[in-house]
Design brief:
- With about 250 residues, the chain is an alpha+beta fold.
- The chain is built from one helix and 19 strands.
- The protein has a six-stranded mixed β-sheet, with no helix packed on it. A four-stranded antiparallel β-sheet has the order 12-13-14-15, with no helix packed on it.
- It is elongated, with a radius of gyration of 37 Å.
Length: about 250
């Protein structure tokens, strides 16, 4: 009679739910399982209830045709490695111990993402050149921010795990497009607004603010000069009176 190999593995696990995993198209992912001693007849990895791989009681690995060239099974750790991931690989993966009853040891919810497209950041000047509009576009998302004298509002939009944000960093406007596994950005320097709006000086302050500071300095200087002249006049008169006073 053919000897039936019965696995004696350790099975000690605390299954608390699925683990979320995010990967790029073309990447690889390793799905692990924790096992200690337990008798069973076969070990199965499933994808959306379809068998990806079965490890039989005779120590034979049986792979589904659509995964033959893209999966690896570790006979010591029972982990499953998927290579060259495609969008169709997304979904629920389960590690199942099969004996008299089936026991789920691990679950992974895999999401496969395309790399994000490079966003585009543009600006438009209104009839009043100190007013302008920044537009940040990425895929199906768009952000518009109204700016005055180079000061713009930071914004963010999210949809289906994809994020688009418009922010200010140093002297740059940043348009960032990202998903859980990739990001790209476009940027514009604040310098672009200075030739358009005469009220913005090289330091980023409005000309009105700079002019106010200049006028204040001029006034302070004039007051100082007048005070010096008045003091000089008083001293001169006092000295003349002393000189003309009979001894």
């Amino acid at each position: 009679m053919e000897f039936l190999l019965i696995f004696s593995l350790s099975l000690f696990f605390s299954f608390t739910g699925s683990t979320d995993v995010s990967k790029l198209v073309g990447d690889s992912v390793q799905l692990d399982v924790q096992i200690k001693e337990q008798t069973f007849s076969s070990f199965i990895w499933k994808h959306n209830n379809n068998i990806v791989l079965r490890y039989t009681s005779k120590g034979k690995i049986i792979k589904h045709d659509s995964y033959k060239d893209r999966v690896q099974f570790n006979e010591e750790t029972y982990s499953l490695t998927l290579k060259n991931l495609q969008k169709t690989d997304r979904g629920l993966y389960e590690a199942i111990l099969s004996s008299e009853t089936d026991t789920t040891l691990a679950q992974y919810n895999l999401t496969v993402w395309d790399p994000v497209e490079a966003p585009v950041l543009t600006y438009q000047v209104t009839s009043n050149t100190c007013n302008s509009t920044l537009t940040c576009r990425g895929h199906n998302l768009s952000i518009t921010s109204t700016c005055f004298k180079g000061s713009c509002e930071e914004k963010e939009e999210r949809s289906g795990g994809v994020a688009l944000s418009l922010s200010i960093k140093g002297h740059s406007f940043i348009c960032n497009h990202s998903n859980p596994v990739s990001w790209k950005q476009d940027e514009l320097e604040m310098e672009i607004f200075r030739p358009l709006c005469a009220d913005i000086d090289a330091g980023g302050e409005s000309a009105g603010e700079s002019a106010g500071v200049s006028v204040c300095l001029v006034k302070t200087g004039l007051y100082s000069i007048i005070l010096i002249i008045l003091l000089s006049a008083v001293i001169t008169v006092h000295l003349r009176e002393r000189c003309n006073k009979p001894s």
